[in-house]
């Protein structure tokens, strides 16, 4: 009616209906956007698996003596004890399998360390894993006279585990428990002390230096399937623990107080994460020696591709770690033919420039 104050826009019921409709449309758009994002992530992960399969074939075929892909296929399915088949079955395949295991372990371990400590520049060595393993190997070689990788692999693993437990215990002292800063400081301090002692042991015993130098450079060459079989169970358990805490890690990465307000058990998540890192990185370091930059670089690349969701970071790192390690190993085989460069040296050369590029371009997002 003319002069009336009542308008269509003033109807409370209609306003509520319009608000509900807008909220429903926004929710549907968010759901559709999330579904599209997850689809893209899944397609990217599948593409990564395909790339990993191709890299595995390269790792088997390329070396001091290249083997044609057709011969590789025959060696896998029609073994005839020829020279090329022996190279493929007895040397290249065990090396590639160990590269897969070590790459997965170091990549996932690096992602966990960065999430637990909320430090995007953290890697497995920051908690003393590498230093503990190296110290134990120096003892095994210099004191107990062990000479083969199989004999001191268990010393390396035990050293990594013991040091990790000690770091966590030291970081837990005081009010507030094991905070990221305390864990980092404890790991760096203990790692520095053990590195100094290890250097002293090596200088006092030149024979120990000769035994350790190739292990200390980081290499997957010359390890049989028995080494992969020995460390694989520890890596599998570490992977299971890592993916069990993938969702709580998203909350922990935002800060302890906010994580608790979201219902996450921060202490339990951090303890499980430290156990997983110990198993993964201890096994990898024991088998291949300390390999730098891989655990630091691969999670950065994964985070750049998929964002801050720890579940997808772990999934992409699961594939990206062995890709980087095996490619680095292939490069090390061909760059100084007929000799070889240890994979730990190559990852440092490859990883440092890539990481600097990502950081300078601002594409390596923070946690």
Automatic annotation (TrEMBL):
Primary site of residence: membrane
Membrane topology: Multi-pass membrane protein
Cell compartment(s), UniProt: Cell membrane
Pfam families reported in the protein's UniProt record: FecCD
Gene Ontology cellular-component terms listed: plasma membrane
InterPro entries in UniProt: ABC_BtuC-like, ABC_transptr_permease_BtuC
A GO MF label: transmembrane transporter activity
The organism's place on the tree of life at top rank: Bacteria
Parts of the chain that traverse the membrane: 42-64, 93-113, 125-146, 152-171, 183-204, 230-250, 271-293, 313-336, 343-360
Keyword 4Fe-4S (UniProt): no
Keywords, sorted A to Z: Cell membrane, Membrane, Transmembrane, Transmembrane helix, Transport
GO biological process: siderophore-iron import into cell
Family: Belongs to the binding-protein-dependent transport system permease family. FecCD subfamily.
Protein name (database record): Iron complex transport system permease protein
Species the sequence originates in: Williamsia marianensis
